[in-house]
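User: What would this chain look like folded?
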Amino acid sequence: MTEAHADIGVIGLAVMGQNLILNMNDHGYAVAAYNRTHARIDQFLAGAAAGREGITGAASLEDLARSLQRPRKVMLMVKAGDPTDEFIVQLLPFLEPGDVIIDGGNANFNDTIRRTALVESRGLLYVGTGVSGGEEGARYGPAIMPGGSAEAWPLVQGIFQAIAARTPDGVPCCDWVGSDGAGHFVKMTHNGIEYGDMQLICEAYQLMRDVLELDPEEIAPVFDEWNNGELNSYLIEITRDILSFRDEHGELVLDQILDAAGQKGTGKWTSVSSLDLGVPVTLISEAVYARCLSALKDERVAASQLLAGPAAMHGRDHPEYALGPTHRVVESIGQALLAAKIVSYAQGFMLMRAAAAEYGWQLDYGSIALMWRSGCIIRSAFLDRIKDAFDDAPDLPNLLVADYFRDVLRRCQGGWRATVQLAVKHGVPVPALSSAVAFYDGYRHERLPANLLQAQRDYFGAHTYERVDGVRGDWFHTDWIGSGAAASSTSYSV
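Assistant: Here's the prediction, encoded as C-alpha cells.
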C-alpha cells in the first residue's frame, strides 16, 4: 500500500502545474503529481523534477489519494469546464470528509459556486483559487486569490502563502477572499483589468507609431521613462522590452506579428458579469471588443481600400508633431494612459463591490489590491495607492473620488482629452482611451439625458418614470397620445 507522505497532490502537468509543484517543493513541501497521460508524469520526474526529493508520481487517482497526509489536499491544474467537473467526480470516491479539493484553473465563478455546493454536500471542502503571473509566476511566486469553503483556509494557507509572490515589504500576495466563487470572481476581474491595461498600452503605441511616426525602437525609451514614474508596472516594462526585441536575423519581432489578437474568455466573462450586475465596466468591454475587431483581419484589409479617413498629417514633416520622446504630445499620451488606467481600475472595483452585494461576499478591497501588488500580470506600484485609498475609507464608493486619484485626474485631464482629440483628428482608433473619458464625464455629471430616455420609454411603451420632485420608487405615467390607458412600471432594475 502506498505510504501517506505528500503534503499536497497536484493533478495536471502542463507548464503551470509543473511550475507550481517545483515552487511548492522549493519551499519544503512534498508533492504527489498525477496526469491523465502517464507518460507526462515520467517525463516530468525525469526532467524538471529530476533529482528532487519530495516530488513523486501517482499511478492513479486512488494511488494519489493514498499518498496524501490527512486531511488530504488535491489541487486541480486542468482545463476549465468539463475536465474540472470530471476530475472532481472521479476524485470523490477516494476522499473523505474534511479533505480539500482545490481548483487552480481559470474557472468561471458560477461554476465554482456550483462546485463548492456539490463538494460541501459530500462533507468535503472546496477552494476555487485564482493564480496569476503566468508560467514565471507559478514557478517563482504568483498572486493567489483563494475562495470557497472557509474551513479550508487554515489547511491551505501555509502552502499558498509560502509559494506566493511578496510585496517589497515582504507581505505575501495571497489572502482569503471569500466564500464559494469569490476567489475566481476576483481573478476574473483581475484579468478584465488586464485586458483594459493591455488595450490602453496598445492605443498609446499606435498613436506614437501612426501619428508621430516613431519606430518601435524610438518608442521603447518612452515606455522606459514611463516605467520609472507613476505608470511603473509589469505590462509597461515588458512593452518596453518587446518594442526593441530583435530575432536572430536582426529583425524586430513586433513587426512580424499579425495584428489579430486572441482571448481565452475571462475578459468576456467580466463584461457579461458587468451587464448582469448593472455596472458600467465600459473600458474593459471596449478592450474585449477591440480584440474581436482585430480578429476581422481580412475584412479590415478589404475595408481599408474602400473607406475614407482624414487626410494624413505626417509626424516627421508636420511642425505640430515634432519628434522627440519628451515632446508635449508624448507627455499628453502618457497622461491619457495614466488617467484611463485609473478609470479601468475604478470600474473593476465597482464590479467587485456589486458582486459582493449580490453574492453575499465580504470582500476586503485593500487586501485585494495588495494581492495584486506583485506576482500577477497587472502588478504595479499604482496598486499601493489603491490599497491606501481603501484602508483610509473601506466604504469608498469609487476610486475616482479618493483624494490621490482625484488629484491625478485633475492634473492629467488636459493631456487626456487632447490625446483623444488627436486620435479622432487622425482617424486612429482609441476605444479604451475614449470610453474612459466618456465614463469619467458621465460619472461626474449631476444630470444626464436619461430623463429624455425615460420619456421616450414611457411614450412608446408606458414604462413610467420617477419625478425629480417625488420620492424614489414612486412611478408616474403621462398619457402622451391621449389613449386614456393605465400604465405600470416594467423597468428592468439591476
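The mean pLDDT is 93. If you want, I can go into more detail on any region.
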